[in-house]
Design a protein that fits this description.
GO terms for molecular function: ATP binding; ATP hydrolysis activity. It is found in: Cell membrane. Belongs to the ABC transporter superfamily. This is ABC transporter related protein. This protein is an alpha/beta fold. It folds into 2 domains: 8-219, P-loop containing nucleotide triphosphate hydrolases (Rossmann fold, 3-Layer(aba) Sandwich); 223-282, Alpha-Beta Plaits (2-Layer Sandwich). 32% of the residues lie in helices and 26% in strands. It has a 6-stranded mixed sheet, with helices on both faces. A hairpin with a 2-residue loop joins strand 4 (61-66) and strand 5. It is globular and about 75 Å long. The structure holds adenosine-5'-triphosphate. Adenosine-5'-triphosphate binds next to helix 1.
Length: 299
């Protein structure tokens, strides 16, 4: 592998089921050491793509290359997969799980180091079934890291976690990245993609519809920003001259999309609007996602 060979590459990857083209011609390359995110609405084909890359399901057609070669024994030794559950782990303590998984590989991270990385020391003697959601995800991540993999696959790792546990998990993923590991992630959470991913690919109906760094994608798609203000502060008289939409009927927020904040603010003030509750925010991945797919990111 040369410096420029991607650690993983998929070419014209397809998985067709009798009724659905779950993945329908996907191409991308993942550079070593980055976090690559697959985003998409429910049923977009993210899990199918990642499971083909993991070697768990067979593609209908297309190629998957690991360090420039078809996946083989080397890939299996050097990849780590965070499973959502295994039938074994609930009957074992955290320590026993770690010991069992590490015994499956000839080499790997020293368990003590793994325990510290994933902050599991406090729970070592607890049955895995008694862990909280965040603790369980950390254990599953530790299991994925026992062989000190070069590439780690995380399929919706923070779904169902509370905000604090999600933040903790992000920190953990960043510490893995800092060790020059490559991370492949699927997620429904745009803040997660924005915070963790160097590159994202947005999928819909089995195809990639946008691919790039989050900031580049936002800069390419949007030259505007969003002004939000409470409906009560939006003057009736401005209704016709300032294009807007009622964002949230419950809280009563009005959204104005503008390329010229100064001019729009001046217009609002001319109409006597109060600016006290006004917010200007840049476009987010959530906006991009909605624009590209017409769907909310979250199910
Ligand atoms: N084994 C299968 N047999 C038939 N259809 C399948 C199978 N697995 C997945 N599909 C279909 O393929 C499409 C893509 O599914 P996939 O699970 O990859 O989507 P996803 O993007 O991961 O969705 P989610 O966000 O809901 O997890 C869906 O329409 C799904 O119903």
């Amino acid at each position: 592998m040369t410096m420029t060979t991607p650690i993983l590459e998929v070419r014209n990857l397809r998985k067709h089921y009798p009724r659905v083209k779950a993945v329908d011609g996907v191409d991308f390359a993942v550079r070593q050491g980055i976090c690559f995110g697959l985003l998409g609405p429910n049923g977009a084909g993210k899990t199918t793509t990642i499971e083909m890359m993991e070697g768990i399901i067979k593609p209908t057609s297309g190629d998957i290359l690991y360090k420039g070669e078809p996946q083989g024994a080397r890939f299996r030794n050097e990849a780590g997969i965070q499973f959502q559950s295994t039938s074994l782990q609930d009957f074992l303590t955290v320590r026993e799980n770690l010991q069992f998984f590490s015994s499956l590989y000839p080499a790997g991270l020293p368990l003590e180091e793994l325990i510290d990385i994933c902050r599991l020391r406090e729970y070592l003697d607890r049955d895995a079934s008694k862990l909280s959601g965040g603790q369980r995800q950390r254990m599953l991540l530790a299991l994925a890291l026992v062989n000190d993999p070069d590439v780690v696959f995380l399929d919706e790792p923070t779904t169902g976690l509370d905000p604090q546990a999600r933040l903790n998990f992000w920190e953990l993923v960043n510490s893995i990245k800092a060790r020059n590991k490559t991370v492949l992630l699927t997620t429904h959470y745009m803040e997660e993609a924005y915070n963790l991913c160097d590159e994202i690919a947005i999928m819909d109906h089995g195809k990639i519809i946008a691919h790039g760094s989050p900031d580049d994608l936002l800069a390419t798609h949007f030259q505007d920003v969003i002004i939000e203000l409470p409906q009560r502060d939006f003057p009736e008289a401005a209704k016709d001259s300032i294009p807007h939409r009622h964002l949230d009927k419950v809280t009563g927020t009005v959204e104005i999309i503008t390329q010229d904040v100064n001019a729009t603010l001046a217009q609002l003030m001319q109409h006597g609007a109060s600016l006290a509750g006004l917010q200007v925010r840049p476009r987010t991945l959530e906006d991009l996602f909605l624009e590209l797919t017409g769907k909310e990111l979250r199910a």
